[in-house]
Amino acid sequence: MRRETKEIRMGNLLIGGDNPISIQSMCTTNTADVMATVGQIRQLENVGCEVVRLAVPDGDACDALPEILKQVNIPVVADIHFDYRLALASLKAGVHGLRINPGNIGGEQNVREVVSAAKDLGVPIRIGVNGGSLDKKWLDKHGLSATALVESALEHVGLLEKFGFYQTKISVKASDVSLMVDSYRLLSQRVDYPLHLGVTEAGDDFAGLIKSGIGIGALLLDGIGDTIRVSLTASPVKEVYAAKEILKSLGLRKGLQIVSCPTCGRTKIDLIDLATKVKNALTPFEEFDLKVAVMGCVVNGPQEAKEADYGVAGGIGEGLIFAKGKIVKKVHESKLLSELVALIEQKEGIDFGINEVK
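-> structure tokens emitted (358 positions)
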């Protein structure tokens, strides 16, 4: 069961409470380059990103924000470090959220100004604490531990509460998966603010996917988490696809699921090629709540395919097409993709562009 959290609003998106878990990413562009940044945000929007974060390291980035905001449709969060004036300028530009570390923007008075402006505009703030940049006083007291990350986060949250600000979400990220999981579990026992999940500095699109899947997935299974980001040293588009897959795998979001077997010596069709082609043909329509199985042989194939909405099970140079647990037809290996897609089109009333499927 998902834990109860406060609900906050970020632009047109509600986070926390019983709202769906939202997917975030961060642009890799120079924020001052409006055209490049808008182009990347639109890419992210198109694949299902619901919140995007932008680095705002200087005045040029701030100056670009109004034009960027005019041209995109999802909430934009300004990521601020060191200079509270950049936070104030970002709020004035119209951003929908701030990500700050109150400890590095120059004292309580500066924090008070930022909080006051955010409160007046109804803009939420994410308190972001990372294992790699933890304040020395917490490291000296607790070492690099879940306790240290959580105590640091609570100190910052307490400062915002001191100024009457409660539209807050929190992250306690670490590159070590066990530390990250322990930190969020501990934090969830201490606060009811919405939590933003992520494994920071997770790595490339192999190691990073595995670490993020383990860390984020473990917490979501515990009912912890209101918004997520899969952090990869790769295109942010891959981050969004990965986040969606995590949510679908846990039954937390509907959408297209493709189940395929790993192949073995029993497989007599080119299953790897077929699975890739099925994914490419159907992924653009992933908002449809369908489960499609691509199986290699008669051992597990027919049963798995029957459990799916649609599927194929291979034979010797041929295969069976299934729909809702029933065999529809047997076709040659070369026809498996086109016949599967044609069947889904017919049954679901979806146009996948069958003439282009090969």
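Residues 295 and 313 are 5 Å apart (CA to CA).
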